[in-house]
Amino acid sequence: MNFYITYFIIAIGLFGFSALFALFGVYAERKVSAFIQDRLGPTETGKYGSLQTFADILKMLQKELITPAAADKLLFILAPAIIFIAVYLGFAALPWGPGLVPAKLNLGLYYVFAIISIETLGILMAGWGSNNKYSILGAMRSAAQIISYEIPAGFAIISVVMIAQTLNLQTISSQQGILSTETIKFSGFWDVTSTGGFFAWNIFRAPHLIIAFVIYFIASLAESNRAPFDIPEAESELVAGFHTEYTGLRFALVFLAEYSMMFLVSMVGVILFLGAWNTPLPNIGPVHLATWTTNAGWGILWIIIKTLTLVGIQMWIRWTLPRFRVDQLMALCWKVLTPLAFACMLISGVWRLFLM
Question: What are the E-state strand segments in the chain?
Answer without folding.
Answer: 185-186, 190-191, 283-284, 287-288
